User: Which sequence fits this backbone?
């Protein structure tokens, strides 16, 4: 009798999703799906609102990466205004974006992933959470809390608020940087770098224990997509799109982010509310690609800061041409944190960073605007159309997590095939299926939920849909 | 020659006070530093008693009386604070919030809003009535200003300032009851109004984010109202 295993909800991810594993007659995995079970409708209910409200409206999509939405949205609005924002404003936006990457990556690595990494995939689920980490490795847990705090603190110093600051506005930012705030941020950088180096040291030490996971965690060829700067360096705010294949060949470079529609298609599947973007020239599903830290470090020639570039070399040695295993998203996240601290320091040292000219004013000059940036989880696209009065008539958003949808689904299948056998189902097997999703750090609703407290329900269903067994964690 | 007015003596909250016969309870109370919440009232414009937040109890009268439109009378005994008043004032605010779409977190007037300030002052922690979520329009046709009906509480400050101070009478109220809304000219887009002088007084007196300057982001719309008493005084002196 064929069976279905349902993991609902998937825990320690941001948002609500479930996994279905379809078993065949003899209990081996036939197919697996990752379902995103929520719908929010931001693209619809913003219709009719003035475009300059969009950054703050869209930031509400997410409590973890509101700054990413602020940036992509504000850039789309800059395009509607038809302005080039003042240089100081651009640098300030970059700093806030990097601070949020620190905060978001810290959340993913320390709060959501480190319980698996420290305590093991098969450890007791009751303590496989940040509190378990605190008990077993207090330094690691404290580093996580501190790292997240630092990222949020910088966001607050700049924008007056840790979550949903309204400081990033169409045309720039609404307040220049002061000397005091600059010095406050600068003084936080050495501690941040120290913490992330210590974490990296620990992470290198445990990598050896996860050989099988590295081998099986969404370790397959895909394309990699992300923004790069004009020299092919790591870029989170602006730049052009680069597409790399699984052998490390750049198959498309310096694509205009504004023409994303020419090369990114979006498919719909009946089992998920999340669309399935793909690289158009290769068609659905061959155009499967990954975005986010793993993809970014794969596609770039260099990071552009000293320590991060040294680590990039170490990282590149993990794979042949490119790093394929999604397990290494974790490593890539830590390297990006190093980069973020180094880059923030560099930007704060620029001559014009205290310039008081930080906002361009204009009436809407274009009826359409597209803003693209790199969110912690990958490339983020905001695309708006407005009427002659500047009221939004249409909006399209492609969120980082969406790009990874095909890869997450394929990853779930790979892990399920490697670890799940229907005849002897264990918690550790199913945790690995969830852990592969966690590696991507998907932001499904962009809202955190209680650490390790959500009930995990696993059901075994017959092909007729009857529940033949149920495990409640 | 100055108008002859009689002096009236009355009690407000048990305190003996005096005022002129052409003054309202609200005016006399505030002259004696007795505060009560108001929303549609604004110094320098006529009063209409629209918001019902300045309701007071008057001894011998069973119903609640709006203090902004009721003149003082000899021997009146007024109570401005009681459990009953607090209950009704909160109810009034909650109904205002439930009536249209007031989303403070993404509003241009967040942090500078009379409605929000009063809700905080009177301890409105939640709204007990179901939200109506009406589908209302935004008029962004004016070059400099925007009207967002979602955030309008029908206080008619815009109507009064335009009529009484600017003298243009661009604004008016159309429809009745729940259908009522402020309009420009004969319900034409604001941008095509022939009477609007684009002076912006309506925007500055609006208590919420219903009227705002274009391009202002969340929480950026703080209103400047200090001009109003000066303008009123100047107009009166010329008469």
Assistant:
């Amino acid at each position: 009798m064929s069976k279905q295993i349902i993991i609902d909800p998937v825990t320690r991810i941001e948002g609500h999703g479930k996994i279905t594993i379809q078993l065949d007659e003899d209990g081996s995995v036939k197919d697996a799906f990752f379902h995103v079970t929520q719908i929010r409708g931001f693209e619809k209910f913003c219709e009719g609102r003035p475009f300059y409200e969009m950054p703050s409206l869209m930031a509400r999509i997410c409590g973890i990466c509101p700054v990413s939405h602020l940036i992509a949205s504000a850039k789309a609005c800059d395009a509607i205004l038809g302005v080039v924002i003042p240089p100081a404003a651009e640098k300030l936006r970059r700093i806030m974006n990097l601070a949020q990457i620190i905060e978001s990556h810290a959340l993913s690595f320390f709060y959501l992933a480190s319980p698996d990494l420290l305590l093991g995939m098969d450890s007791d689920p009751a303590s496989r959470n940040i509190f378990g980490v605190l008990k077993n490795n207090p330094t690691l847990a404290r580093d996580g809390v501190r790292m997240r705090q630092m990222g949020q603190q910088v966001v607050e110093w700049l924008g007056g608020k840790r979550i949903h600051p309204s400081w990033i506005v169409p045309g720039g930012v609404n307040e220049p940087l002061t000397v005091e705030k600059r010095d406050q941020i600068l003084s936080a950088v050495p501690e941040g770098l120290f913490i992330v180096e210590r974490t990296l040291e620990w992470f290198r030490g445990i990598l050896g224990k996860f050989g099988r996971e590295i081998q099986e965690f969404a370790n397959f060829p895909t394309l990699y997509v992300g923004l790069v700067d004009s020299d092919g360096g790591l870029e989170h705010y602006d730049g052009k799109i680069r597409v790399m294949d699984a052998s490390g060949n750049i198959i498309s470079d310096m694509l205009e982010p504004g023409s994303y529609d020419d090369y990114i298609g979006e498919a719909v599947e009946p089992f998920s509310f999340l669309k399935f973007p793909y690289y158009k020239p290769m068609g659905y599903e061959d155009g499967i690609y990954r975005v986010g830290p793993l993809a970014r470090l794969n596609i770039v020639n260099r990071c552009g800061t000293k320590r991060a570039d040294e680590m990039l070399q170490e990282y590149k040695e993990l794979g042949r041409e490119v790093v394929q295993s999604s397990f290494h998203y974790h490593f890539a996240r830590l390297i990006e944190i190093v980069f973020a601290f180094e880059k923030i320091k560099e930007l704060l040292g620029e001559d014009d960073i205290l310039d008081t000219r930080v906002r361009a004013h204009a009436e809407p000059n274009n009826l359409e605007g597209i803003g693209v940036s790199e969110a912690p989880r990958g490339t983020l696209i905001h695309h708006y159309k407005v009427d002659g009065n500047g009221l939004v008539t249409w909006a399209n958003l492609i969120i980082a997590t969406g790009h990874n949808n095909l890869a997450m689904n394929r990853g779930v299948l790979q892990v399920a095939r490697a670890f799940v056998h229907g005849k002897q189902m264990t918690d550790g097997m199913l945790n690995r299926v969830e852990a592969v999703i966690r590696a991507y750090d998907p932001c499904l609703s962009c809202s955190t939920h209680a650490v390790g407290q959500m009930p995990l329900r696993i059901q075994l269903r017959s092909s007729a849909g009857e529940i033949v067994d149920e495990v409640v964690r | 020659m100055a108008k002859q007015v009689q002096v009236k003596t009355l009690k407000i909250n048990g305190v003996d006070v005096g005022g002129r016969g052409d003054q309202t309870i609200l005016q006399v109370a505030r002259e004696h530093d007795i505060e009560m919440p108001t929303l549609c009232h604004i110094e320098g414009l006529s009063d209409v008693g629209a918001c019902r937040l300045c309701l007071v109890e008057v001894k011998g009268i069973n119903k609640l009386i709006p203090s902004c439109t009721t003149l003082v009378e000899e021997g009146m005994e007024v109570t401005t604070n009681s459990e009953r008043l607090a209950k009704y004032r909160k109810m009034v605010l909650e109904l205002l919030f439930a009536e249209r779409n007031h989303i403070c977190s993404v509003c241009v007037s967040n942090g500078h809003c009379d409605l929000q300030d009063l809700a905080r002052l009177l301890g409105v922690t939640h709204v007990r009535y179901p939200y109506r979520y009406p589908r209302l329009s935004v008029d962004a046709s004016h070059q400099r200003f925007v009207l967002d009906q979602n955030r309008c509480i029908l206080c008619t400050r815009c109507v009064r300032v335009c009529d009484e101070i600017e003298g243009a009478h661009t604004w008016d109220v159309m429809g009745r009851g729940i259908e009522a809304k402020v309009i420009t000219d004969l319900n034409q887009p604001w941008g095509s109004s022939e009477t609007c002088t684009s002076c912006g007084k309506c925007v500055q007196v609006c208590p919420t984010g219903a009227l705002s300057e274009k391009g202002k982001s969340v929480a950026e719309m703080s209103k400047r109202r200090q001009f109003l008493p000066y303008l009123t005084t100047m107009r009166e002196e010329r008469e």
